[in-house]
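Hi L., both proteins are below.
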Amino acid sequence: PLPARPVTFPPYEIRKLANGMQVVLVSQNEQPVVSVRMIIRAGAAHDPKGKHGLAMLTATLLDQGAGKRSAEQIAETIDFIGGVLGTGAGSDLTSVNAIVMKDSYDIALELVADVVQRPTFAPEEIERQRAQALSALKVAADDPESVADRVIERLIYGFHPYGKPDSGTPDSIAAVTREDLLGFHRRWFGPNNAILAIVGDVSPEEAFAGAER
């Protein structure tokens, strides 16, 4: 191995809002870009028994209609400002990430707030995402690498949540209801279970004021 070299992290600030949410700020002025990432401390390992894939399905639906915007309107809003909005879930975390130019920081916060706090879980979007998830599982079942990954996880972790498939099974995905999605969101998506990371060309005053708002 190469000799160890010192690593210098950029300066950062951490504040806790009145509602218990942590906000981490890293100011970087090299480019006029801001990244806003919300992390929820819940993922596939928190799926209820028989509902594996619930966290993943919840994450994919967050930006498919939220607040007063439909899925199409959310996509149009982020596209219009030349930004990127994405959602995802892993074993322990769910995340929502927006990357925008610095003059669109407020719009990014507004979108992330809607997507995290007010997803609509529209029935037609649930069925569309369910169909995509089932199709992905079918493709994965024919992929030796995907099958090997699942076998290895089960051999290592057994029946611990880490040993169960994050993306679920055809039966578990088919069993997920809208009430399951609402329940998962209601249980885990709270401010005291979340971290907001803001990185980029934004002042501490503007960053924290936006988070408070």
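That was the first. Here is the second:
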Amino acid sequence: MKTLVLSMISIAATIAAMTACTSESDPINDITNPKDAKVEINVTANVLKAEVQSKAAVTGNVLTGVQILRKNAKPADLASTNWGTTPIVVDIENSTSNIFEKNQQYYEPSGENAYFIGFYPAGTVSNTGIVTFTDMTGKQDLLLSNELDAGARGSVTNSPALTFSHKLALIKFTFKQGTGYPNNDNVTGLTVKGVELPASMKLSDGTITYTTDKAATGITAFSSKNYAINAAGTAINDEDALMIEPEKDITLEITTEKGTFTVSSVKINNSDSEKIAAGKQYNISITFNGTAANATATITPWGEAIDGEGSTN
């Protein structure tokens, strides 16, 4: 009987010893080769001159549904390495947060550098680095970031950041009552002619290919709205602004309750050569005088304020 008790005690001691060897805190379960340990990639993002709303201009450092592409290469091999075609979808919450916090990225153990580029809105990416967009209406901001070298394992870049810039021009409108124009009229619709919508964008240099059927028919800013024409001036709501193709002359077709007006040759600084520029906001003030409408334009941040004027027929 004594022998049995001693044997059981011996077995229990052996089990306890085995258990101690497999403790979660025991170094036997730690990674023994530091080269195999994962190293996180932390990247922040900024939006140049620009809180985000669906189908509206980006005006802050808050942006959801940003598409990020990644490629891994040593700097000497970078030119022959294409971007992937499956984007990493991230949200930019502010300019200091790691955009990969919810979808963590890791450096390659082989020592290759991690490269990133981002764009917005979502599109389909080809293996040649072309993003194709669908359902563009003129209400979507188009953003492209720099190509970021986030460094490699063991040589991490200090505070790597993606900076997004606007590829289109933002235009808004204000309606004013001028000399001789009757009271109690309202603008009910506005269409911009002379510009096209983005169809695709080349990631390497930001070159945009545009549609070919919108310049003549026009892009609708709003219809069936009711903006009063008064002496103080009525500014449109942000959702009725347009993000348009830059470097083009535009014509405005305006419908009111009393008639239809064409505002042609909207000029910046009263110049035929100065064109609407990407990344800038244009506030076009349209004054209705008698039976005609006159337009002036100014630019505010995004870009510096610049005076402009337009003529009508």
